[in-house]
Write a structure and sequence with these properties.
With 387 residues, the chain is of the alpha/beta class. It contains 16 helices and six strands. It has a six-stranded mixed beta sheet, sandwiched between helices. A hairpin with a 5-residue loop joins strand 1 (38-41) and strand 2.
Length: 387
């Protein structure tokens, strides 16, 4: 049984490199927030920036692939405003210390949304409120009715505090803002790879905090420092850096339970459980890195095929040498010796150094395809390949 390997832990088809809009915006604010700020996910709002002076920027994100959340009577538009009014009324937030933003992608517009965005004074809000009340009375839209009523029933001070601090932003592609931050410092082939990695880093940190029962609130300075270090590693011409995170325990356990061919190869030489856990982790990461490096143009697919052929050849040399030095009646021990020596190899691709897990993972991928094996009689013990 072979294992199906995804291109990357977070990679999937979709408009934002496989991510939902919230992690994309979380990443953007982490990379652009000022010093000593923190950025949270689904804490006070979809995304929020917590500044050092204790002020806030609260952002509602709207992925608008099928409908326009900025149309005059869109429920999403008025619900966001109603929620902020409720938060202010309950003293969850102080609207006088907040900036409010509705972020929509892809690009959409609306006349009332534009009017809300353009309000800068008490008089502007008062004039807009009168216009909304008159138009709402004529249209009587149902879906947004409770949210518009909440807006109209608020006091002048409540409305003014929020609407004069409201910005409505709509972009065709939210990744363009991230690309603009990155593309001036790296080769073009790396831009989308680094965007995806940055978003993945932000999402993984938020997810881990949530799993721990903590608020998903990330330090901006630390995130920027880690990402800068990551970019510098990837931008070194003599180094291929892994673009894939280490799989978690549940992912590794799931593969061990499936017992793919490369794990069966380790079982028949009586390898340790720790060896099998490391094999699964390195197999998944190296398989994903191969795909992502090729897609990004960092490595040619032909070079990867030549690399695999080189590993098969080296395995043959090591197997012959170990066989010459090992007792003929201890095949499992002989297999473990071959496996360990292969696992310790560090071989570059096109003259570029590879991550520590990569060669080991590639050997296990070749073992999974039965292009090589550890036990001298692995082919007979494992049987023919499944269709």
């Amino acid at each position: 049984m072979n294992v199906a390997v995804k291109a990357a832990k977070h990679a999937a088809p979709g408009p934002y490199l496989g991510f939902a809009l919230q992690p994309v915006r979380l990443c953007y604010h982490l990379l652009t927030c000022p010093g000593e700020a923190q950025v949270s996910l689904e804490l006070l709002d979809d995304v929020a920036v917590h500044y050092a002076d204790r002020t806030l920027a609260l952002e509602q994100t709207k992925s608008a692939l099928k409908q326009n959340p900025l149309s005059d009577w869109a429920a999403d538009l008025w619900k966001a405003i109603a929620n902020w009014l409720d938060s202010a009324a309950s003293r969850t937030i102080d609207p006088n210390k907040c900036q409010f933003r509705i972020y929509v992608s892809p690009l959409h517009t609306g006349s009332l949304a534009q009017a809300l965005n353009d309000c800068n004074s008490d008089a502007d809000v008062e004039e807009l409120t009168a216009a909304v009340a008159l138009s709402f009375k004529k249209k009587k839209p149902s879906a947004c009715a409770p949210y518009v009523q909440r807006f109209l029933s608020a006091s002048d001070d409540e409305r003014t505090a929020i609407i004069t601090r409201l910005a409505i932003v709509s972009e065709t592609d939210p990744l363009e803002s991230l690309r603009a931050l990155i593309k001036t410092t790296v080769v073009p082939e790396l831009v989308d790879v680094l965007c995806e990695s940055a978003i993945g880093m932000a999402k993984e940190q938020a997810d881990e905090l949530i799993r721990q029962g903590k608020a998903a609130k990330i330090d901006g300075d630390r995130f920027k420092a880690n990402f800068i270090a990551f970019v510098q590693r990837n931008n070194l011409p003599g180094l291929l850096t892994s673009l894939t995170e280490k799989p978690n325990e549940s992912e590794v356990t799931a593969i061990l339970i499936q017992r793919p061919t490369f794990i069966q190869q380790l079982e028949i030489i009586d390898s340790s459980y720790d060896d099998r856990v490391r094999a699964v982790s390195d197999f998944l990461r190296s398989s994903s890195d191969k795909t992502r490096w090729a897609e990004a143009g960092l490595v040619f697919e032909g070079s990867l095929r030549e690399f695999d052929d080189s590993l098969v050849w080296r395995h043959g040399l090591i197997s012959t040498e170990v066989a010459d030095l090992s007792p003929l009646n201890d095949s499992a021990r002989q297999g473990r010796a071959i496996y360990r020596r292969c696992a310790q190899l560090q071989i570059p691709i096109d003259g570029r150094a590879v991550p520590e897990h990569f060669v080991h993972g590639c050997f296990n991928a070749l073992a999974d395809a039965k292009r090589l094996g550890w036990h001298p009689e692995y082919e007979a013990l494992l049987g023919p390949n499944e269709d």
